[in-house]
Amino acid sequence: MPVTSVEKDPENLTMTIVADFPVPISRLWDAYADPRQIEKFWGPPTYPATFTRHDLYPGGRSEYYMTGPEGDRSAGYWEYLAVEKGHSFEVLDGFAGEDGQPNEQMPSMRMVFTFEETAEGSRLTTITYFNSAEELEQLLEMGMEEGTRAAMAQIDDVLTDLRSFAADRATEAQLLSDTQVRVSRVIRGTPQQVWDAHHAPELLQRWLLGPDGWQFTNCQVATEAGQTYRYAWADANGENGFALTGEVRESQPPHREVTTEAMEGIDGPPTLNEQTLTPVEGGTLLSLVITYDSKELRDTVLATGMTEGMEISYSRLEKVLAA
């Protein structure tokens, strides 16, 4: 078990948990930075977590829920107060309601995660700061210490699973709910480079092409919230054209962008696309959460070979960045 000590200090309203791991700091950090990995251990074994948002940068936000054996859910969120890549991050940790908004009836707390190198590998020290002795006691009675121990006992399996999260893995799609899919791919490049490649027309037209031989016929890029974009393509003969259009809802370069997306000429509500770029070992983790209007639409789009098509484009993107 990685937890080596738990110290509760009612006088200073803190609880300090120390855990040691036989891996480098970078590997441990990535386990917390990657939503695919942290959701494998953030919740206890009987209450696994699903992260629908995970923005590890100052001012960013994470949103997750834990699902119990009877299908019951408990939601939470993090607001990032400070981040020092590879060394520490500080969050405001709180409970959330079914709508994802903070549950004001439940206490929130400040948590500081510090990563250090040791002779055997790395150490994670987590200090939780409570607002009052009553809140500390309330959360301990709810099983916070036991739940944390049980959750962290799962980290070792994640840390040894190098292949599932390696930089040379192809694009993968993970079902988060009946209407949400998370697409993940590590791109060899910095977040700024990947961001620029999504917003500079001269770069975008070199990689976002789909099958070989296809070409852009229109590339109107949006870079700020409220702006609209339009991308249109045709095959090598200039035929079978189609276009995607949408609007930028949020823009926080070079980390997060939220857009809508719809196929031109097709009736129906657009998807909501939430893209986050996070630096990890080997490059930048591109995490794209797509929300569809229905399960049927989600399944129809996935059945078209969407994931495979995205891998072709992302592979081409890496070549553009390398050049």
UniProtKB/TrEMBL annotation:
It comes from the Bacteria. InterPro entries: ASHA1/2-like_C (IPR013538), START-like_dom_sf (IPR023393). Residues 23-159, 190-321 form the Activator of Hsp90 ATPase homologue 1/2-like C-terminal domain. Transmembrane segments: none annotated. Belongs to the AHA1 family. This is SRPBCC family protein.
